[in-house]
Every structure is written in structure tokens, then in C-alpha cells.
Design goal:
By secondary structure, the chain is an alpha+beta fold. 56% of the residues lie in helices and 17% in strands. It has a two-stranded parallel sheet with strand order 1-4. Helix 2 crosses helix 3. The longest helix has 24 residues, at 37-60.
């Protein structure tokens, strides 16, 4: 399951079009709410980056269906978690997570 962390809003926007969280849940995307200002700041940076990437990739690939957009979304999350070096930690998220589990 994909998990999306959001700052408490019940709207997810793609290319300026608001989608209720129900749509994300129907697509198998779980939601984690950020409650502190610090967490919200961290989420907003990642959210803005992901939203911009998905929109650009959909435009580049002439995506016109929700199913195809969903695959782009999943691909970008996979890329972010497994290949993208995080700007604050300078680590790849999945590697940082695995190291945290191993080192307690």
C-alpha cells in the first residue's frame, strides 16, 4: 500500500483539480496526517515536489486517464523513496529507514 502524508486537509490537488481523499483511498493510497508545524513543513516540501513531478510527467506523457496518472504517481513515489537523495538528510529514504531499523 502507498502511504501519503498530508497536513490535515481533505483535498488533494492534481493540476489544480481538487480530489477528495476518498479517491486516494479507493486507489489504495493510505493517508497519514501530520499534526505538528514541523511535520507539516517537511510534508509540504515533499508534497509540493511530488505534485509538481506528477503533473509534469503526466503532461510530458500526455496522460489523460486516472489509471495512467495513478501509475505515474506510484512510479514517482517509488523513485523518491528508492533513488532520490533527500535534501535535508542527504540520504535516500529507504536506505535511511533500513539503517534505522538495523541500528535500533
Amino acid at each position: 500500500m502507498i502511504l501519503l502524508t498530508i497536513s490535515g486537509h481533505h483535498i488533494f490537488k492534481i493540476n489544480g483539480i481538487a480530489l477528495p481523499l476518498r479517491i486516494l483511498k479507493d486507489c489504495g493510497i493510505g493517508v497519514i496526517y501530520a499534526l505538528s508545524p514541523q511535520a507539516k513543513g517537511k510534508i509540504e516540501r515533499s508534497y509540493s515536489w511530488l505534485q509538481a513531478r506528477v503533473v509534469r510527467q503526466c503532461a510530458k506523457d500526455n496522460i489523460t486517464t486516472f489509471n495512467n496518472m495513478q501509475q505515474i504517481f506510484r512510479n514517482e513515489i517509488e523513485r523518491y523513496n528508492t533513488r532520490q537523495v533527500h535534501s535535508a538528510t542527504k540520504e535516500i529514504p529507504v536506505i535511511r529507514f533500513e539503517n534505522a531499523i538495523q541500528n535500533g
